[in-house]
Structure formats: structure tokens, C-alpha cells
């Protein structure tokens, strides 16, 4: 059975208990924080405009008021410091500055009538640029044009140079249009279709610049809402994304996995610190958000954070919507591949892989032999395309214990890590690239100057038993170097030039040793039947890391003749040192040596 992702995810055992409802004082402070951020952003824009317009008096006043406000913000909870009152003054000063600095094109769009607003319109007042409600690329929000001449202003900041698409779903009987203004109030994109038709416009955004979508209507209805959506943000794998959303705002992310597998999409504290949020995650297969694949409010009874687990197809875009029930969102969202779905990386079998933006691709590498392995990236398909990659190696599937990392290998933008690995102990390889788009790269794992597996026999002479009947009680030990024997060694082992009548029985002693016992009786076992060139052969399928059959060094089979006047036999080891002396088939002297070849013992047996 597949292990639930929540059971293996880092920190899954540390779920926070449900938070108590936020106190009124804390809600007031939180609302104050949101207002402060909103007007801080507005101050940044007005300062730019004042500098461009060379209106130094306005710039000085804005800067003075801002410094005074933030000097008192060290303790926002202290009501007596006058921070709330100063913020109101600050907002009023910003409004005056906006009137002085707003270009005529924006002023024309910003003319408003005072009327009763829909109670469901949470973004009012957003009647001009200075009141624009902040949204993010990927936001999907619902609101109303609820009175004559109503126009709704929103604001977002582009994070990179890219094409941004703004779409507006309008009530069936209404004719609404969409305009997008830049920081100077100039129209950079617009759409003005007929009644009930969707409005869509696309423009090239500049990184760090603010833009203002404006919803304008010929007529209005307080009963039917419109839906404003911006192009989706990318949710990259194993990359946290911190999100701050006002109540009622939802953010949509595009997620494109590069391999088939089970994925976990979940929320946790903003920046991994702070309180819980009551988040909601919805996963869709289409950009129109009509085909819901999975959704979740609370991941368990112990948390208000959310978690969705779903099998996704590599290369297919999916859409993740993040929101909350009746409160602001201040949380972190992340998408990870289940460790059980990590693709396998094997030695000397390079993978041509696709990288989506700065998503992390994770691979499991289980070495078959111990040694030095080189992990490296190179051109996709063996071509010449250069990609700026990063390699990371981890000891655990949760990617918490990093072993090594490399960005650029010398002067190359490709990456390389060399590391000693142990047979059977997996290493987790993480690959990503510095790119906002798709990258194509080759990933390889190769043995650095790989050693070839070899086998040697421990005994140079196998002696017939003393009863001189063709049986052999001596055994042969075979030792393997630079490899590992498989578990079942009962087959795949043979002895070349084995005397007729004899058989073998193989026992696996360890990863690197087997024992061969000789069964049966040699049909002919006189001295003239001695064998001097016997060898052991092992099938490559029986040795991990082998690509060809392994053949040992030669050894002998020595048969004895029991003559009436007696006979002597002399046995030597693989160092050509005398180890045993037999007389008439009986052992009479046994000699042992140390590692330097010096005699340790000389024992007379009979």
C-alpha cells in the first residue's frame, strides 16, 4: 500500500493545534498592518512620480510624513502613540499628492459619483488609483459595479518581464470593459467587447513596475458580480511561495510537473513562522477552473492548513487556487513530489530531462557497487545547448540532510559533483536551473574510472582425500573484488577442467565470498590424472556491477597413489609456500605463516 504523503512529509508530526479565534484587538492590528502596507506601496509610487515631475516640494512633504509615521510604528499596539491618527493624516496627504501628480488620462478615468455601494463589494472604496485595491498576478476576485458611473481600480506589481493577461467575466446583460494603466496613468492595454462578452487583454510587463486594471461599465447591476482574473503565477516544485491575500481574494497558480507521479500540495506558516491560517486549496486540470480534481480545507483535525494529494501527469499544466473562509491569508504554499514517485537514476544511463522554471527535479540513485561516482549535467541529447544548472545531493528522501552541492563546474555553467558512495545506500539527486521558462538538460551518474570485478581462488592445490577413493573433502574459497554477489549463488558457477566424476556445491558466504565443495568421486584418480589448470567461472548475472563472465586464477587437483613402499605429497599455498606434507595419504606436518611470509607454527601431526 502506498504510504500517505502526509506521513512522510517533513514536519508532518508537528501539526499545530487549531488556533483560537483572533481577538478583536489583534484583528484591529492586522487590519492596520494591511492599511499600512497598502499606503506604503502608494508612497513608493508617488515618490517616483514626484521625482519624474520634478515636484520636489511634494516629495519632501511625502518623505517627512512617512518618516514621522514609521518612527511611531515600533510599537503598533500602543494606541496612545497616535499611530492610527497619524495614519489617517498620512492617507489624507497621499490623496492630496495623488491629485497633484495624477496625469490627466487617469483623472478622466477616476471621476466618480457618490452612491450606495453593494454590501457584497468588499473592495470599495477603490474609486481611483490612490484607492486601488492590491491584487497579485494569479488573483481571481469577484466584485460589483453597483452604482451609476462606478469604476473599480486594482493594482499589482510585475515580478518579471513577461506577458500578462487580464481577463474579465461580465454579467450576461452588462457591457463592462477593462483598461490597464501603468504607473504614469497611461493605458497600456484594454478590451471593449459587447454586452455579456468576456474581456481579455494582454501586455508586456516590466519587472518591478506597478499596473492598474480598471473595470469600467456602461450601466451597472448590484445583483450580479463580475470576475477579474490575472495571469497565473507559477508554482514550482519544492519551492515555497509566501502569499498575503486580503479577505475574499483568491490566488491561482499554474503547476506543471515534469514527471508522472503523486504530488502533495500544502500550506504552512508564512516564512515557516507565525500562526495558522484557515486556508483552502483547490486543484483544477483547466485554466478556466471548471474541472475540479481535488480540494481541501483542513488537512486534519489538528490544523487549519490545507493539503491535497493527487496523481499528476508530467508535462501537463494544472491550476491551484488558494483562498480562505472569511479571513485574510498570510501563509506559505508548496508542491512536492512524493518520494515513492522519484524517478530512478542509474549508473552510465544518462537521462535527458525537462526542467520547469526553477522547479526542483528529484531522482533516486542506488549504487550497485561502492566507489567514486560522478554526478554531472550536460547538453540535452548530447547537443551543444548550455544551461545554467545546480546539482544537490541528499542522504534522505525528505531532502533535509544535504551531502554536497555545485552550481558552476569551473568555467562551465553545467554542474558536477564527485562523491564516494556505498553499494545499496541510496543518494537523492536534486537538479534545477536558473530559468523562468523550460530548460532541457542531460543528467548523468558514472563511475569515475570504474574498477572491473575480479575473482581469485584461495587454495592453489585441491588434494584427494587420504582414503584414496577419488573423493575430495577439501573446499575452495572464491573471493570477489570490486563487486557484490547476488543472494542466490546456487547456479551460475562452474569449475573448468573438473575431473570426471566430480560435481560441485556452491554456498554464498558473504557479499564477496563463496565456498565450493566437491561432490562425487573422480572416475580416475591416479597421479597421472592430476589437473594443473582448473579455474572457476561465474556468470555476470551473479555479480552486481559485472558486464562479462568472471574467470579465476588457475589451481590444481592432486590425486595420490598408495604404493606398497609408501609415498609422500607436498602441498603449497598461492605464495608457493609449503603448508602440508602427507605420507601414504596421511597428514604428518602442517606449517602456518604470518602476513610477511615468516613461519608461525610447524606441527607434526603423526
List keywords for this structure.
606 residues; mainly beta; nine-stranded mixed sheet; five-stranded mixed sheet; disordered N terminus
Quick recap:
The chain is mostly beta strands and 606 residues long.
Share of residues in strands: 35-45%
CA-based gyration radius: 39 Å
- Give the % helix: 10-25%
**Total number of β-strand segments?**
42
The main sheet comes to: 9 strands, mixed
What does this 3D model show about the protein?
This protein has 606 residues and is mainly beta. The chain contains 5 helices and 42 strands. The strands form 9 sheets. Strands 2, 4, 7, 9, 10, 12, 14, 15 and 17 form a 9-stranded mixed beta sheet that branches. A hairpin with a 2-residue loop joins strand 33 and strand 34. Helix 3 packs antiparallel against helix 4 (83-101). The longest helix is centred in the N-terminal third of the chain and has 29 residues, at 24-52. The radius of gyration is 39 Å and the shape is rod-shaped. 31% of the residues are buried.
Amino acid at each position: 500500500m502506498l504510504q500517505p504523503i502526509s506521513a512522510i512529509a517533513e514536519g508532518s508530526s508537528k501539526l499545530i493545534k487549531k488556533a483560537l479565534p483572533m481577538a478583536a484587538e489583534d484583528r484591529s492590528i492586522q487590519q492596520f498592518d494591511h492599511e499600512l502596507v497598502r499606503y506604503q506601496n502608494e508612497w513608493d509610487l508617488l515618490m517616483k512620480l514626484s521625482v519624474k515631475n520634478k515636484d520636489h516640494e511634494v516629495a519632501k512633504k511625502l518623505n517627512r510624513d512617512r518618516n514621522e509615521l514609521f518612527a511611531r510604528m515600533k510599537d503598533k499596539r500602543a494606541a496612545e502613540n497616535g499611530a492610527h491618527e497619524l495614519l489617517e493624516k498620512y492617507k489624507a496627504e497621499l490623496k492630496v499628492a495623488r491629485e497633484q501628480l495624477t496625469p490627466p488620462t487617469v483623472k478622466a478615468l477616476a471621476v466618480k459619483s457618490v452612491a450606495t455601494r453593494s454590501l457584497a463589494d468588499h473592495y470599495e472604496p477603490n474609486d481611483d488609483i490612490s484607492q486601488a485595491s492590491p491584487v497579485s498576478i494569479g488573483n481571481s476576485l469577484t466584485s460589483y459595479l453597483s452604482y451609476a458611473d462606478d469604476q473599480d481600480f486594482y493594482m499589482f506589481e510585475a515580478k518579471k518581464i513577461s506577458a500578462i493577461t487580464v481577463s474579465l467575466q461580465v454579467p450576461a446583460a452588462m457591457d463592462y470593459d477593462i483598461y490597464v494603466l501603468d504607473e504614469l496613468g497611461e493605458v497600456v492595454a484594454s478590451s471593449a467587447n459587447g454586452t455579456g462578452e468576456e474581456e481579455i487583454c494582454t501586455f508586456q510587463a516590466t519587472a518591478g513596475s506597478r499596473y492598474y486594471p480598471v473595470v469600467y461599465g456602461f450601466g451597472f447591476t448590484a445583483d450580479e458580480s463580475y470576475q477579474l482574473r490575472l495571469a497565473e503565477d507559477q508554482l514550482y516544485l519544492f519551492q515555497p511561495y509566501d502569499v498575503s491575500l486580503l479577505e475574499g481574494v483568491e490566488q491561482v497558480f499554474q503547476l506543471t510537473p515534469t514527471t508522472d507521479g503523486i504530488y502533495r500540495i500544502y500550506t504552512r506558516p508564512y516564512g515557516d513562522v507565525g500562526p495558522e491560517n484557515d486556508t483552502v486549496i483547490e486543484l483544477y486540470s483547466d485554466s478556466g477552473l471548471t474541472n475540479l480534481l481535488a480540494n481541501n480545507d483542513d488537512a486534519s483535525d489538528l490544523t487549519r492548513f490545507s493539503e491535497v494529494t493527487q496523481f499528476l501527469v508530467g508535462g501537463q499544466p494544472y491550476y491551484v487556487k488558494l483562498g480562505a473562509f472569511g479571513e485574510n491569508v498570510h501563509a506559505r504554499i508548496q508542491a512536492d513530489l512524493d518520494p515513492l514517485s522519484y524517478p530512478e537514476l542509474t549508473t552510465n544511463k544518462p537521462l535527458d530531462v525537462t526542467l520547469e522554471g526553477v522547479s526542483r527535479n528529484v531522482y533516486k540513485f542506488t549504487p550497485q557497487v561502492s566507489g567514486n561516482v560522478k554526478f554531472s549535467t550536460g547538453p540535452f541529447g548530447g547537443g551543444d545547448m548550455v544551461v545554467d544548472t545546480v546539482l544537490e545531493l541528499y542522504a534522505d528522501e525528505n531532502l533535509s540532510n544535504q551531502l554536497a552541492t555545485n552550481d558552476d563546474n569551473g568555467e562551465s555553467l553545467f554542474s558536477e559533483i564527485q562523491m564516494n558512495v556505498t553499494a545499496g545506500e541510496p543518494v537523492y539527486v536534486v537538479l534545477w536551473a536558473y530559468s523562468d521558462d523550460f530548460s532541457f538538460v542531460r543528467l548523468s551518474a558514472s563511475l569515475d574510472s570504474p574498477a572491473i570485478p575480479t575473482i581469485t581462488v584461495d587454495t592453489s592445490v585441491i588434494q584427494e582425500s587420504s582414503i584414496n577413493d577419488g573423493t575430495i573433502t577439501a573446499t575452495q574459497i572464491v573471493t570477489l573484488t570490486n563487486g557484490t554477489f547476488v543472494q542466490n549463488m546456487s547456479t551460475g558457477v562452474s569449475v573448468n577442467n573438473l575431473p570426471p566424476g566430480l560435481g560441485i556445491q556452491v554456498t554464498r558466504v558473504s557479499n564477496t565470498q563463496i565456498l565450493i565443495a566437491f561432490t562425487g568421486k573422480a572416475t580416475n584418480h591416479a597421479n597421472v590424472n592430476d589437473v594443473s589448470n582448473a579455474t572457476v567461472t561465474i556468470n555476470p548475472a551473479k555479480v552486481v556491477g559485472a558486464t562479462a563472465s568472471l574467470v579465476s586464477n588457475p589451481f590444481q587437483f592432486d590425486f595420490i597413489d598408495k604404493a606398497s613402499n609408501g609415498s609422500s605429497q607436498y602441498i603449497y599455498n598461492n605464495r608457493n609456500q609449503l603448508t602440508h606434507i602427507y605420507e601414504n595419504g596421511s597428514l604428518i606436518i602442517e606449517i602456518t605463516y604470518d602476513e610477511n611470509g615468516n613461519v608461525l607454527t610447524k606441527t607434526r601431526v603423526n
